[in-house]
Design goal:
By secondary structure, this protein is α/β, with parallel strands linked by helices. It has 2 domains: 106 residues, Arc Repressor Mutant, subunit A, CATH 1.10.10; 294 residues, Alpha-Beta Horseshoe (pyruvate-formate lyase- activating enzyme). It contains 18 helices and 19 strands. The protein has a 9-stranded mixed β-sheet, sandwiched between helices. Strand 5, helix 5 and strand 6 form a beta-alpha-beta unit.
């Protein structure tokens, strides 16, 4: 198993059963040693395991099987359009200023909804809705209203107070009227892309966005009573330093968002053409990036935020932090989610569904997506039906990523297995990480230490049975 730790002994009696190692809040040398490439585990198995023998029929059968469970639904809608390309972007997007291009896309989305709803019991509540992209606020107000109407007609949207209806917003092309309209449509959570407040960094990434744009929208969102506001930041961008990013963080903390996502920029220009506009010599070095990460965690923790895991922070009273405390936090393709046990319906180009025991993905190419729907069939081009082993390992990896610990006894009871025996190889591989202070074990309880939380992707990799067949170059660095 490619866990990239020092060689472990062949017995289970070393530090796994002995005295716990000294737990350090920060160990730069250790972070460097474990900073390899690895999956983010928004799904297990990851998308690299999807195959093109998976057909639209496989998805429709899964949709029909899922009705027996009566699980609530989560719907993701991908809007691929952007008016302007940010150079760091690795999303599936189409750059255009012509909003008329959205009309034929909305028609195809409706066709996809109709084809999907035929196989669903639509009395199942839609507890979660998320519009991502691209830039969903590329749509004008009428188009947004039209899309909500279509979603409601096909699936039946919820007005329940505990619904989680979120949309990603570009503050450069939204205003207070946009927010009021979104609230009237039923959205109760918004995510604002900020990335960095330094004018020098903004110019280098082709995203000029003065603080006042973000502040105005946040003030209005608070006034309107949006339940939760999230800000997206990115570290590792050109010209960033620990000092400059600390200045951004100070301003962001003043804005008081309920949630923060602080992503690590992965520079992969060979895969993402816009990144070729970034001069690699302008990027902060590994020392500076680690300093930025440490300062981020220290400043946000001091400001009262809970480090949920990886790149997510939330106030203690936010639903994300509450879900983690209650053990109901989940990971999906949008990151951490407070709504566990939903079947996820992905709509639009490149969208991925997680329904029953399958993953199904639409094509990333718009023309191919449109052509499939024009022929009256779902646009699924690849996917995977999970084996029993996949389902068990997905459960373990998800609990580790969400709870920062694993209860082997609970896993064993849930899946009717002898969990320590079933995962003997993974536990053996984790011995090195435990000796290094990333993990502690007490009986059937495995818990990530403060340093282990920063390397949680690495710990999860020990349970990944698909990883040996995959090349690490496909994944971003862990830290």
């Amino acid at each position: 198993m490619p866990v990239h730790a020092p060689a472990a002994s062949s017995t289970m009696t070393s530090t796994m059963a002995g005295a716990a190692p000294e737990q350090k809040e920060w160990d730069e040398a250790l972070l460097r040693r474990y900073d390899t490439s690895g999956p983010r585990y928004t799904s297990y198995p990851t998308a690299l395991s999807f195959h093109d023998q998976f057909t639209p029929s496989d998805l429709t059968q899964a949709l029909e099987r899922s009705n027996a469970s009566q699980r609530p639904l989560s719907v993701y809608v991908h809007i691929p359009f952007c008016r302007k390309i940010c150079f760091y972007c690795a999303c599936n997007k189409i750059a255009t200023k012509n909003t008329a291009l959205a009309e034929p896309y909305l028609s195809r989305l409706d066709r996809e909804m109709v084809l999907t709803a035929r196989h669903l019991d639509t009395t199942r509540p839609v507890k979660q809705l998320h519009w991502g992209g691209g830039t969903p606020t590329f749509l004008n107000l009428n188009q947004m209203g039209d899309l909500i109407d279509r979603l409601d007609a096909r699936f039946g949207l919820s007005s329940a107070s505990d619904r989680d209806y979120a949309i990603e917003i570009d503050p450069r092309e939204a205003d207070v009227f946009t927010l009021r309209h979104l609230q009237s449509l039923g959205f109760n959570r918004i995510s604002l892309g900020v990335q960095d407040l330094s004018p020098l960094v903004q110019k280098a990434i082709n995203r000029i966005q003065p603080r006042v744009l973000t502040e105005t929208l946040m003030d209005e969102a608070h006034r309107l009573g949006f339940r939760s506001l999230n800000l997206d930041l990115i570290y590792g961008l050109p010209f960033q330093t620990e000092k400059s990013f600390a200045d951004t963080l100070r301003q962001v903390i003043e804005l008081n968002p309920a949630r923060l996502s602080v992503f690590n920029y992965a520079h992969m220009p060979e895969r993402f053409a816009p990144q070729r506009r970034i001069n690699v010599d302008d990027l902060p070095g590994s020392d500076e990036k680690l300093a930025i990460l440490r300062t981020t965690i220290e400043m946000l923790t001091a400001a009262g935020y809970v480090h949920i895991g990886m790149d997510h922070f939330a106030r203690p009273d936010d639903s994300l932090a509450i879900a983690q405390r209650e053990g109901s936090l989940q990971r999906n393709f949008q990151g951490y989610s407070s709504h566990a046990q939903c079947d996820l319906i992905g709509l639009g180009v490149s969208a991925i569904s997680r329904v029953d025991d399958v993953y199904a993905q639409n094509p990333s190419d718009l023309a191919r997506y449109e052509a499939a729907l024009d022929q009256g069939q779902l646009a699924t081009v690849r996917g995977l039906r999970l084996s029993d082993d996949d389902l068990i390992r997905r459960d373990v990896i998800e609990r580790l990523m969400c709870d920062m610990r694993i209860d082997l006894a609970a896993i064993g009871q849930r899946w009717n297995i002898d969990a320590p025996r079933y995962f003997a190889q993974a536990l053996e591989h984790l011995q090195g990480a435990e000796r290094d202070g990333l993990l502690t074990r007490s009986g059937d309880q495995l818990s990530a230490t403060p340093m282990g939380r920063l390397l949680i992707r690495h710990l999860a990799m020990a349970f990944d049975a698909h990883l040996p067949q995959q090349s690490g170059k496909h994944y971003s660095k862990i830290v």
